[in-house]
Design brief:
The protein has about 525 residues and is of the alpha/beta class. Among the domains are: about 130 residues, no CATH class; about 170 residues, von Willebrand factor, type A domain (Rossmann fold). Helix content is about 50%, strand content about 10%. Helix 4 packs across helix 6. It is globular.
Length: about 525
């Protein structure tokens, strides 16, 4: 009788975050699993806000581990590493990790004399996607390795400069607060204008003049944006507020590229109701979300507030902003007025568009232990526990039949109704102390078709073994790692045990692939 060669036979799916088989200990003493270098770097990259401390690791320790792993793999597996760095800055939307990683990629390869694989110049260019990022990379390199900048770094930055520098970016990012101004970068990397952009030569010269002769620098007459901006800045201070309150004031500010950050300094006075209402039409959605409290405090009228609400909740705007879902949760938690609640709830829902509707019965376990309450970054008030709750609740709501459980030292099932909002479900989550993941799985697993655990994986020792051992081998267990620590709480990569990572919902695309018996590749290879 045919046992394997049948029409219904399927190969066992695999995923790319892979365990080596070596046993480690988690920070809480549980029996952990070592991952191979590529897997460790991937999980660290997607969870790492550079220089940010986590519960178990200092920022310096994480940065050192990140730099070491990038350096090793830049030499031994340059194509994979270059793919990771480009994806981090692109779809991954992680600026700092990509920039630091590119610098470490180049340094390791130059030190080792390696030339195989993607060129150093290409990798540098690939991670520079915003006009202020050439200066960021230069600042990191000179602070870390000195002012002798190698040619591949200069050439990669020059390539990016030709793509990124324009009149609007000059106004927004070429400010006195920067250590490297646009003119400094142009001088250092010897960036020639793009032949396909005839206006760029005059722009580059103006950037140099702004840096070295600011009192006499004159923008190109052909650049209407820069010319309009110069006309506004030339106005006496006492005449400026009249521009804001005049008919057509908002249009004039927009035509001059006046950002909300620059407007207060230009007015040399408070950002009152009129100032905000004049600049709001030209603000991007994330700038709007950052300033909801300021709008309320200034008394922005309901008509303007309605336009703000429509913009921040528009699905196309949410997709274009490419923000992590937890950004909307943070705004919801700190916006003072109820008029922003529903638009932010809509925006959060749009940002979770990749969370799949899983069939069958699903057990979703959300880690609410103490270590998860460290903030995702020093500049964010939101913690990993709440980020985990966002995704756990979204998964449960989309699934055909789900049990949603929060766990720590103990565990509790959270009731919810079909169609209930994510934000309402979040109100039931609590801080639950330690990390007894194994016991939570043992208590709540009831012949589910799959188990998904959103956690930092640092579970405490259990005599019953690791959390994944409590599930039958034929049932998939998906671990979503939010912190990128070295030791995992179970095996990964095959045999129905898979680990993903990061603070966006992109990883969940892999679950349907695996369950349809297709291998889940690295995100940039999909």
């Amino acid at each position: 009788m045919s046992r394997f060669n049948t029409r219904t036979a399927r190969a066992q799916p695999t995923s790319r975050v892979t365990s080596t088989g070596r046993v480690l200990r988690t920070y809480e003493g549980g029996r952990g699993r070592e991952r191979d270098a590529r897997s460790e770097l991937f999980l660290l990259s997607v969870a790492n806000f550079v220089s940010q401390q986590t519960f178990y690791e200092s920022g310096a320790d994480r940065d050192d581990r990140f730099a070491r792993l990038v350096g090793e793999l830049a030499v031994t597996d340059p194509t994979w590493t270059a793919g990771l760095l480009g994806w981090l800055r692109g779809e991954g939307n992680l600026r700092t990790a990509a920039i630091v990683g590119a610098a470490e990629y180049v340094k390791a390869r130059l030190d080792a004399g390696v030339t195989a694989g993607p060129s150093n110049r290409q990798v540098v260019d690939s991670v520079l996607q915003r006009p202020d990022e050439p200066g960021e990379l230069l600042a990191y390199w000179t602070a870390t390795y000195g002012r002798n900048v190698p040619k591949p770094v200069k050439r990669g930055i020059a390539d990016a400069v030709r793509r990124l520098y324009g009149g609007r970016s000059l106004l927004k990012y070429d400010t006195a607060s920067k250590g490297y101004r646009f003119g400094d970068i142009l001088n250092l990397v010897h960036a020639a204008p793009d032949p396909e952009k005839p206006w760029q030569g005059e722009l580059f010269q103006y950037a140099l003049d702004r840096r070295h002769h600011p009192d006499t620098a004159v923008p190109p007459a052909s650049d209407r944006l820069l010319t309009a901006h110069r006309e506004l800045t030339a106005l006496p201070v006492e005449e400026r507020r009249a521009v804001v309150t005049s008919d057509g004031g908002a249009e004039r500010l927009a035509a001059a590229g006046m950002t909300w950050e620059a407007l207060a300094g230009w007015l040399q006075g408070p950002m009152d109701k009129a100032a905000w209402e004049a600049v709001i039409p030209s603000m991007g959605s994330m700038s709007l979300i950052r300033n909801l409290r300021n709008f309320d405090e200034a008394g922005v009228c309901d008509e303007v507030a309605a336009r703000v609400a429509a913009k921040i909740s528009d699905p196309a705007e949410v997709a274009r902003s490419r923000q992590f879902p937890f950004r909307y949760l943070a705004a919801y938690q700190h916006a003072p007025s109820l008029r922003w609640s529903y638009p932010l709830e809509q925006a959060l829902g749009h940002s979770l568009a990749n969370v799949p509707a899983l069939p069958g019965r699903t057990l979703v376990l959300v880690d609410r232990s103490g270590s998860m309450f460290s903030r995702v970054s020093d500049r964010s008030r939101l913690n990993r526990a709440d980020a985990a709750a966002v995704f756990g609740a979204a998964l449960a709501l989309r699934a055909a039949d789900a049990d949603l459980v929060q766990f720590g030292t103990n565990s509790h099932q959270l009731p919810f109704r079909r169609g209930e909002s994510v934000l309402r479900i979040l109100q039931g989550f609590r801080s639950l102390g330690g990390t007894d993941t194994t016991e939570a799985v043992r208590r709540h697993y009831r012949a589910h078709d799959r188990v998904l655990i959103v956690t930092d994986e640092q579970y405490t020792f259990s005599r019953h073994g690791d959390p994944t051992e409590q599930i039958p081998a034929n049932v998939p267990v998906y671990t979503w790692n939010l912190a990128g620590y070295r030791a995992g709480h179970g095996p990964s990569g095959k045999a129905n045990r898979h680990t993903f990572g990061g603070l966006s919902d992109a990883a969940f695309r892999m679950v349907p692939l695996l369950e349809s018996a297709r291998d889940a590749d690295w995100p940039w290879a999909v």
